[in-house]
Amino acid sequence: MHRFSLAARRHLLALAAYTLLSVALSWPLLPHIATHVPGVPQWAFDEATFVWNIWYFKHALLETLQSPLHSELIWFPLGIDLILYTYNFYHVLAALPLALAVNLPFASNVALLTSTILSGYGTWLLTLSLLTKLEKEKGRTPSRELGAPVFLAAFIAGAVYAFASNRSVYAALGHYDMTTTQWIPFYALALLRAFDLNLSPARRRKWAILGGLFFALTGLAEMISALFLAMFTIIALLVRLREGQTSNAPVAHAAQSNRRLTLSRARTLASSLLLLGLVAFLVWSPALIPILRTFFSADYDLEGWGDALMLSADLLGWFTATVFHPIFGGDVVREMRLVQQRAINPDLTGFRDINTVFLGWATLALALVGALTHWRRVKLWVWTALVFGVLTLGPLLQINGRYRFDLDGLETTVPLPFLLLHFIPIVKANRAPNRNSVLLMLGLAVLVGYGLYWLLDQARRRRLTMNIAWLRPTVATALTAAILFEHLALPLPLTDARIPAVYETIAAEPGEFSILQLPLGWRNSFGVFGPENTLLQYYQSAHGKPMLGGNISRAPAFKMQYFERIPYFKALTDVQFGRPVPPETLEAAIGQAEDLMYLYDTRYVLLFPPIPDRPPYSDTWQDAWDFVKRTLPLEPAPFWAEDGIEAYRVIQPAGGDQFYLNLGEPGTFAYRGEGWDEAEVDAPYGASAVWATGRSSRLFMPLRRVNADAVYRIQVTAHPFAYPNSPPQQVALTINGHRLDAQPLPDGWHTLAWAAPGALLKNGLNRLELTWGYAAVPRQVIPGERMIGATGVELPIDADLKAFAEGGFIALFDEEGRQIDGSAGRRGVNITVLDRRTGRVLDKVGFDTTASEAENERLIAFVEQIPVGAPTLVVTYGEATNHLSEEALKALESVGAALTLTEVRGRHFAVVGVKGAAPGSAAQAIDADEAFLRVSLNRDRRPLAAAVDSVQISR
Predict the structure, then answer these.
(1) For residue 938, how many other CB atoms are within 10 A of its CB?
(2) Between the chain's N and C termini, which has fewer beta carbons within 10 Å?
(3) Residue in 179, 204, 202, 171 with CA at minimum distance from that of residue 190
(4) Which of the four pLDDT bands, split at 50, 70 and 90, describes residue 252?
(5) pLDDT band for position 245 (50/70/90)?
(6) Do 893 and 908 form a contact (C-beta atoms < 8 A)?
């Protein structure tokens, strides 16, 4: 009983110490725990996103009984999926009970503090386990005293991981997903136990189950962290197999060959991994399955490198205290402005991002001591620190912001292993290399534990502490204090999370309607449109109404494009960014302002003052306010004006329960959701209409004074996309989520009609969805051909040739439609030779026959050596015939051309031929102004369903 209480006291003491440190090192959060949240107000307000997540999860799951993986309340009227999104489900679930009992800021803050406490405690448990095992291997009985080297060394390891600079910076920047790290050390402990062949199979299975649980909890917090754990697992497996660990289990004493021993060990480890993976999948699957489905089917994978270079750690940053340090740091807001300036001007020196990955001087020194003194036992942690440390540096080495280096006049870069991860599906989703620091610091933390253990053990072995009992705890405390000091981030920046009282008025008004707030903007991982302020999204937790704008991690490109195409939002964004508004955009914006407010049923406009030192809105807010007041139909005076906020009611017309939408007219972008061509107007089949693209096309239709007892008529005038042997087209109509029967749409222009009870319609914005029987890509169903004139040979790639006075272009297009420059781009005659099978450019040469007769001779020689059968493209640039001879034109006959000097003198020409073809069999064009030639399949890659002329709702 005494032993149990002593062990319990050790755990309670560790937890209490980490709790006190968490409170102290997050100061002044405690006195503001119910009103503020960690975050820098001049940064991106990501902290507001995570607090909003808690509210929305509760709202969707408990209040509206809907999936929390989709929201119609932000990015209105489109709505948005919350799947590839930094939801941090663990943070949400942990905070939810306190959110119901107290409030959102309090719940979020307690969950964050708990993450820090458990990060330290989990690392303490991990290191304690490792060092206890080491003590046993030395033949010692591990001491349970609080001053024992094992306890003290494990404690400092936990302190390193919990209070390292990377976690402090992530908290200060509002990246709560990257501070929810507590399950990472727990997973590492469970994994090593599951791999421990000295344990019985039953105990290994228990630890494998726990490992799966901790892996899933990590994934629920942040998917990227789960990817890191998967990489850590591979490292651990390789190290374990390499070590050839001896075991007391019977299999280790069996007289077997090394090969059979290795295979047996591998099978045992694989079985543990299989069980661990199964448990992780089962626990994580409600979130993981939608994530994987979206990853493999959606059109918003990581674009390019996703700012990976900017979000990488700087090598100098490893050894530089962060800007949040009270002594070694600096002006946080000023540094943030410099980061933005460096993003615009790469020639400026300095860190490309807020320095996140500072290793710590004392931390690194102790970690090196641990690595050097226990190398055989700490290989896993050395490799973990090395691998994830190098990965934090990103795709190219940066030193003080420089990634291009001059080597005696040669400009070069230093590629790093992160480059390889970019080409691995799913893994490449990590666009921020500095996030690898969550495993880097775990590796260093464990090594620090070994380092302190060695120092204290040396003192014990030399009997330095026999008569000086206070020496060991004093040394441990001093080193812990040194490490905590170098990683300090005090005072912790806080964002005011108190919600303005004006929202109580808005919440009290019944019905579903939208609100517009300034600053107005939309933000995702790939960019912004407008100076989005996520605090305004968090304020939604007080009113629950749909809002224009919002913040999301990843979204289909159309989501942003929808708003970018609407003149009013374009004009307002220009004003908020301090850019001049083009006159035509301003005219269109003013012309549609009333209609837009009617469409979205926007009843309130709230104008917020700027946050100091947070451009661009801090510089343009007055112009933005004036623009909104001048262009929107607002009541003359605000109904609420406090704390610098002005809130206006929108003057809405009475409206009616009928609406006609002519899609053939300009200005319909706001009414068109997903599933429409990007052209504003088109004229398919001889009528002004717009193509429906894809199997589903959404429309937004405003109505007022809907009679729930009436029967309404919805009419759609459309023409199916027809092609040889196309199936019969049909279309079904869905109104606000209620599907009506499908109707056939015969070839030709037809008006289809559905009868719908008024109960299906809303006062406000109605969502109509047309679901088509098929959508076909013209390139696939009416592909055309790429026959090269009369040569009998097909060009293996699409090609456009254009010869004119100011240029000579050869544009090649691959199967995805990506353009390849195929011309040498010189004055005179440009010749490009292609691979006859793949269309790859084998050679492209320009001959300046405008200025040189010698170039004419070079042209003749070049044509002669072109391989027989090679597709050959010829285009002129400018006055190419000054020194072009009959002999040169004769040479071109070998590729099928038929040109004479009389025909081409003073003109431009383009030729697509084949070497060895008969003269006159090539495709060619000659013109005095512009010679254009196209040899191509159908370029139309749109999935066309039907051309739609109009949609009408009437009685």
Answers:
(1) 15
(2) N
(3) 204
(4) very low
(5) very low
(6) no
CA distances from 659 to 594, 705, 706, 951 (A): 15, 12, 11, 8
Q: Answer with the residue of higher pLDDT: 243 or 542.
A: 542
Q: Phi, psi (5° rounding) for residue 594?
A: -65, -45
CA 471 – CA 466 distance, rounded (Å): 9
* Token pair belonging to 682: 């088109």
Q: What is the 3-state secondary structure (H, E, C) of 196-238?
A: CCCCCHHHHHHHHHHHHHHHHHHHHHCHHHHHHHHHHHHHHHH
Q: Which residue has the tokens 């004055």?
A: 827
pLDDT of residue 131: 96
Two tokens, residue 69: 């993986």
User: Of 274, 232, 219, which Cα lies nearest the Cα of 126?
Assistant: 232
Both tokens of 51, joined, read 């607090």
Tokens linked to 207: 């630890």
Read out DSSP for 59-91? IIIIIS---TTEESSSSTTT-EE-SSS---HHH
Token pair in block for residue 906? 């003073």
CA 689/CA 950 separation, integer angstroms: 8
E strands along 583-685, which residues? 602-607, 640-642, 645-649, 659-662
Q: What is the pLDDT of residue 426?
A: 76
Q: Are 405 and 256 in contact (CB under 8 A)?
A: no
Q: Is 276 exposed, middle or buried (0-12, 13-18, 19+ CB in 10 A)?
A: buried
Point out which residues pair with 804 in neighbouring strands: 807, 930
Give mean pLDDT, residues 137-150. Answer: 81
Is it the case that residue 14 has pLDDT exceeding 50? yes
- The answer for residues whose C-beta is within 8 angstroms of residue 809's C-beta and 6 or more apart is 800, 801, 802, 823, 875
Looking at residue 259, its amino acid is: R
The answer, yes or no, to whether residue 695 has pLDDT greater than 80, is yes
Q: How many CB atoms lie within 10 A of CB 192?
A: 18
Instruction: Please report where in the chains the tokens 């139909």 appear, as a residue.
Output: 633
Instruction: Read off the pLDDT of residues 508-538 as tens digits, 9 standing for 90 and up.
Output: 999 999 999 999 999 988 889 999 999 999 9
| Average of per-residue pLDDT values in the chain | 93
d(CA 116, CA 159) in angstroms, rounded, equals 10
Q: At what angle do helices 471-486 and 361-373 cross, to 10 degrees?
A: 130
CA atoms within 13 A on the CB side of 756: 30
User: Would you give the DSSP letter of residue 667?
Assistant: S
